[in-house]
Specification:
Elements: E1 10-13, E2 21-25, H1 43-46, H2 56-67, E3 71-74, E4 96-97, E5 100-101, H3 110-138, E6 143-150, E7 153-154, E8 157-158, E9 163-166, H4 172-183, E10 190-192, H5 204-210, E11 216-223, H6 230-248
Parallel strand pairs: 2-3, 2-6, 6-11, 9-10
Antiparallel strand pairs: 1-3, 4-5, 7-8, 9-11
Helix pairs in contact: 2-6, 3-5, 4-6
Amino acid sequence: MLNFNDPHPFHVINENGKAPLLIACDHAENYIPECLSDLGMDKEHLEKHIAYDIGAKQVSIILSGMFDAPLICSAYSRLVIDLNRHLDDHSLVTPHSDNIDVPGNQDLRAEDVRQRIDCFFHPYHDQYARMAKRAVADHEQPLILSVHSFTPSINGIPRPWEYGVLWDDPHRKLSQMVIDNFRKINGLTIGDNQPYHARDPMGYAQVEHAEKNGMEMALIEIRQDLIVDEPGQKKAAEILHQVISPLIA
């Protein structure tokens, strides 16, 4: 599906970082491969949250440098394929997102979906798995930090949380520690499994990379209006560094 103008399915930054931490940004980019012709969508829609997690990549890159931790980022839009979905999830290649049609994802044949899985999903997660296994081999108790962002409101309803911590039962203890560390910072409103939750079903990475490798995982959501520019991204990274550092000391 890719030509010479298209990037590799993933980006790895600071691959040899020394921290007992693996950072992942599953929805880092809004890029659509040339062969899919923007999935038939207007450019303005590809700049919205339906296409990627605005600001999350930049925060992840700053954190990678602050921690000296390896980072894996997606290189393609979640509209091409959602890397944090299981392969049998109906939203893996979604025909609609936030009431917006995705024409290039409608009436797909099974072989069309399989082609995207082979081209984008498996290469990303194969590399993710290699990095997780290396973290386990190199460190006693490494963590995975998954960075996402969310819209300030949905369907006209404001979301008051600046940060959300999403968790499922196997990661309840770590996530509560993350929430407690956030709440030590004055003035922040923290979502406990808000604005989403990480259960029923758990995300693909939680199962395939964290649990199967015996790793703890913290999944963080950051409200997008806080990280739309460089000063906000730097501030968010500093807050996350303050929150996560005690857990990997």
